[in-house]
Amino acid sequence: MKRDKLTQYLREDRWPTVWCPGCGNGIILKSFIDAYDQSGLNPDQTAVVSGIGCSSRSTGYLDFNTMHTLHGRAIAFATGVALTRPDFKVVVMGGDGDITAIGGNHFIHACRRNINLTIIIYNNMIYGMTGGQHSPTTPGGKVAGTMPFGNVEEQFDVVKLALSAGATYVARSTVYHYALTVKYIKEALLHKGTAVVEVMSNCHTYYGRYNGLREPWQMMDFFKENTIMKEKAEKMTEDELKGKIVVGVFRKDDLKQDFYTRYRLTYSKGE
Ligand code: SF4
């Protein structure tokens, strides 16, 4: 018998988690559970798929139909589930490295095709599990294990990437903004088509330690002090927005058909 709302969605025998104390992954996982509980979806018809990385361990802790797959390949596996079981809600969980680097191609093509997936990106701006290497979302100038004098690369803006690739629901939040995160994940779960929620998260163990934010609360403070709502950001200049995190819903298109619906309508005419 499960104890309460939180534990009914968890495999308690898998706890404690492998995550460092204070890691944002736990906040995102709890946001997902709250959002899922409010969504009215059926856990028996829900699949959660992940690749490799700290955040990808989420599938081990969640008591749904789960798949913990290969590095960068979560979206490929999830696409297979979504197309063979259109009655399922299919969720992908992964980090910035897993989804925008190794799995970057799968990500842009899922968005382009509008596959019916809810993709939750835990963006901690670094590779955590593999030891603090820079990822495509590490900001320029910030230190990582592979950029000890500062990152010389430009960072991906995950929201812009998802928008330009064609995702039909796109939102961003941070682990500091819990209520917003729950709201956006719930909207994404109820959306039909590719829904992307980027949640800025803290890896204080690597990103924070390398960049003067060693304690979890320092990174939470950073998110609190540097986040701007989209509506306010639209009235600000590019210079004023430098180093800021803009949160909000950037697209919500309920009219565009998802891939499966379009495919069935086109190819089942002779049946
Ligand atoms: Fe979290 Fe970073 Fe620790 Fe991984 S290494 S569990 S991302 S704090």
Automatic annotation (TrEMBL):
SUPFAM superfamilies: Thiamin diphosphate-binding fold (THDP-binding). One of its GO terms (molecular function) is thiamine pyrophosphate binding. It comes from the Bacteria. Keywords: Oxidoreductase. It holds the Pfam family TPP_enzyme_C. One of its GO terms (biological process) is cellular respiration. Residues 52-199 form the Thiamine pyrophosphate enzyme TPP-binding domain. This is 2-oxoglutarate ferredoxin oxidoreductase, beta subunit. It comes from Fervidobacterium gondwanense DSM 13020.
